[in-house]
Design brief:
The chain contains five helices and two strands, in the order αβαααβα. With 81 residues, it is mainly alpha-helical. The chain has a domain of 53 residues. The chain has a two-stranded antiparallel ribbon. It comes from Parabacteroides goldsteinii CL02T12C30.
Length: 81
């Protein structure tokens, strides 16, 4: 029996615009969306440099949609989901 393996490019995380909860679920797929969102928020605000860099890129606390640049900053800090 032949196993079906995904192409490595298909598995690589794509930097693009994400909703906050959408990105949070990429990191925590087994959590409820609200819990995943709160956890991502804690990870971000507990790192002063990341928070400062995100704010410099236009991020604000109530923002629900992240720009590709902001997503890239989070991924650079946390690693790929």
């Amino acid at each position: 029996m032949k196993l079906n393996h995904k192409n490595m490019d298909e598995e690589k995380f794509k930097i693009r615009s994400y909703g906050w909860t959408e990105l949070a679920l990429c990191y925590n797929p087994d959590l409820h969306p609200n819990s995943a969102s709160r956890l991502l928020h804690r990870w971000v605000v507990r790192n002063e440099k990341l928070t400062r860099d995100l704010r410099a890129a236009g991020f604000c606390e109530r923002q629900r949609k992240l720009t590709p640049k902001q997503v890239g900053m989070i991924v650079d800090f946390l690693g790929e989901p």
